[in-house]
Amino acid sequence: KMMLDMRGCRVVVAQTDAALLPTVEATRAALDGGAKCVVLVNPGNPSGAVIPEGRLRAISDVCAGRNAWLVVDNTYDAFVYGVKHSLVEGPHVVNVFSFSKAYGLMGWRV
Q1: Which of 107, 67, 69 is nearest to 88 (CA)?
Q2: pTM score, two decimals?
Q3: What are the tens digits of pLDDT across the range 27-64?
Q4: Inter-CA distances, 32 with 29, 35, 38, 66, 80, Å
């Protein structure tokens, strides 16, 4: 957030549901309010909440329909247990991963 503030970007933090998951409605409202990019962390940190595939696809569809970027931080995808971690793809989607987290090299710059 600090980097975005320094660049003059307006950051909107959308509300989540009771399970700490982003909602399609909150995403739509943020984009209707002028947002140009949606950033999701999946699974969430520190909650560990994993966005269900259907909801992730629905949010992706909303972003695509409004010509907005969707950046999904999948840094903790190697630490999902008991549920499926899903990905979305598209020309408007940027998926981010972390080699160092997945292989126990936290703090290393590999």
Answers
A1: 69
A2: 0.89
A3: 999 999 989 999 999 999 889 999 999 999 999 999 99
A4: 5, 7, 12, 9, 32
